Amino acid sequence: MSELQTIHPTLRVIPREEHNVSRRDISPNALRVLYRLREAGFGAYLVGGAVRDLLVGGHPKDFDVATDATPEQVKQLFRNCRLIGRRFRLAHVVFGREIIEVATFRSNADDGSGERETHEGGRVLRDNVFGTIEDDAVRRDFTVNALYYAIEDFSVRDYVGGFEDVQHRLMRLIGDPEKRYREDPVRMLRAVRLAAKLDFEIEAATAEPIPRMAPLLGEAAPARLFEECLKLFLTGHAVASFERLEYHGLLDVLFPESAIALRANRSGALRRMLIAGLRGTDTRVANDEPVSPAFLFALLLWPAYCRALAQLQHGGMHAAEAERRAADRVTVHQLNTIALPRRFSLPMQEIWLLQSRFSQRQRKRVFRLLAHPRFRAAYDFLNLRMAASNEHADDVAFWREAQHQPGDVLAAQLDTQPEGESAGAPRRRRRRRRGSAASGE
Ligand code: ATP
Ligand code: MG
User: Fold this and answer.
1) What is the mean pLDDT of the chain?
2) Averaged over 267-277, what is the pLDDT?
């Protein structure tokens, strides 16, 4: 059965005076595109995340346009337009750094029916199935993502009950949830991510299959899952994302080894540390400070790393060797699900491997660590560990001082300390660490 037979799109028009989408909040470039399409006689609508975000009073980061003009017709209207995509051709209208994406209405080519439906005015172009505005609405994922703001009368057009769902703050899949998740398992993550971002609930029938179907996410493209992770955790709602992923059973699929380690950690210190780190990330985003995927993944995979390290050491491996093996093992295993690029996984591992060096006080090593490009990130990480476990306070105090002291003062201070590490460190540990510093970097 095709999607169109199970869903009956019925149009509800919400006139301008009954909604809060205002042209004042729409990017002037998006308005330019909408008006130009309209003047040329085409249907022109703002659609998707932008309409949803405007309805809840948010500030959309990008503005997508839907139209019945074909990509070629769009290209003829705008000099600053290029066509992209092989499977579905899209028009990008470029205004300096802002790109307005213009998509021709299309129907769901992946509706599982095995049939390609063509509609009046629709045609098959490569794999590009054009459709009506109704087709375009029902192929979208959630009802709140399928609202159309019409430039001709400033009304919002709703074919699937999305307007009401926005009022009730509900994420509801269009059509049969199981079928929609099977079509594209990443929709499970999108449900959680958008609910976290908007502070919406996931409607019961949309939430119900998630724990059951979560394993399907393992088949999603690892590169796409990496991109989703960045949106889940680096856009200002990391704590909410994490808690909802955990609640809906998705953490076990995204970060299986960390999920196991978190459950096994009786004291709860690993979880506290993780949440504190994610809260810090949210604060940085709120303050427009930079956030790094390397630090994020160091946090998310720290429980897995600690567990792997403990296992290796339990088997008798020396600390330095075990640390490197644990870091590699966790990284390699994680790559099965999420394609973490090397430019992020290498600094992530450095953040972990630097942790054991904070207890070393030999003059040469102190200066080497202070000069390490990952010192600051690793020190911030140490702070999180201290806050969650009430350990490492001496180390944090030492390095907090050390990084602000003039070199000669610090050197003099270190020279007056007994040779080697901080007082009381056992000799055996020191020797192992020495091996670590020699072979680790
Ligand atoms: P945000 O940009 O805040 O992450 P968004 O809803 O705009 O959220 P995009 O990935 O930009 O997300 O997608 C734009 C629109 O395309 C969505 O609003 C939705 O209508 C549609 N869409 C995106 N991904 C899917 C999907 N996996 N299945 C069906 N429709 C989708
Ligand atoms: Mg978007």
Assistant:
1) 88
2) 94
What local confidence, expressed as pLDDT, does residue 86 receive? Answer: 80
- Antiparallel, parallel or unpaired: β 98-104 and 64-67: parallel
The listed CATH number (1.10.357.10, 3.40.50.2300, 3.40.1570.10, 1.10.3090.10) that belongs to domain 255-438: 1.10.3090.10
Position in ligand 1 atom list of the atom nearest CA 197: 3
Give ranges for CATH 1.10.3090.10 in the chain. 255-438
Q: Which protein residues have their CB within 5 A of the ion that is ligand 2? A: 49
Determine which one of 25, 62, 176, 184 is catalytic. 62
Q: Which residues line ligand 1 (CB under 6 A)?
A: 48-49, 64, 140-141, 145-146, 184, 186-187, 231
Q: Is 405 helix (H, G, I), strand (E, B) or coil?
A: coil
Spatial distance between the Cα atoms of 258 and 261, rounded to a whole number of angstroms: 5
Of residues 132, 182, 183, 141, the one with CA closest to residue 160: 141
For the stretch 89-133, pLDDT in tens is: 999 999 999 999 999 999 976 544 434 444 344 444 444 589 999
Instruction: Quote the CA–CA distance of 424 and 441 in Å, as a whole number.
Output: 26
Torsion region of 65: left, alpha or beta (phi above 0 gives left; psi -120 to 50 gives alpha): beta
pTM beyond cutoff 0.85: yes
- Give me ligand 1 centre to Cα 123, in Å: 23
Residue having the nearest C-alpha atom to atom 7 of ligand 1: 49
Q: Which residue in 64, 68, 158, 282 is the catalytic one?
A: 64
Domain 3-168 fold is Beta Polymerase; domain 2 (3.30.460)
Interval 13-23: pLDDT, tens: 999 999 999 99
Known catalytic residue: 158?
Answer: no
| Nearest protein CA to atom 26 of ligand 1, as residue | 141
Residue 240 has pLDDT above 70, yes or no: yes
Q: Which tens digits make up the pLDDT trace of 175-192?
A: 999 999 999 999 999 999
Task: Please tell me the number of the ligand nearest to residue 235's CA.
Answer: 1
Ligand 1 atom with least separation from CA of 49: 7
End-to-end distance of the chain based on CA atoms, in angstroms? 59
Q: Which of 68, 136, 141, 252 is catalytic?
A: 141
- Which residue has its alpha carbon closest to ligand 1 atom 17? 48
In the chain, residues under CATH classification 3.30.460.10 are 3-168
- Predicted confidence (pLDDT) per residue in 320-370, tens digit: 999 999 999 999 999 999 999 999 999 999 999 999 888 888 878 877 888
Which residues, other chains included, contact 223 with Cβ-Cβ below 8 Å and sequence gap of 6+? 339
Q: For a ligand 1 pocket test, name from 53, 62, 190 the mutation site with the most ligand atoms within 8 angstroms of its C-beta.
A: 190
> What phi, psi does 42 have (nearest 5°)?
-100, 160
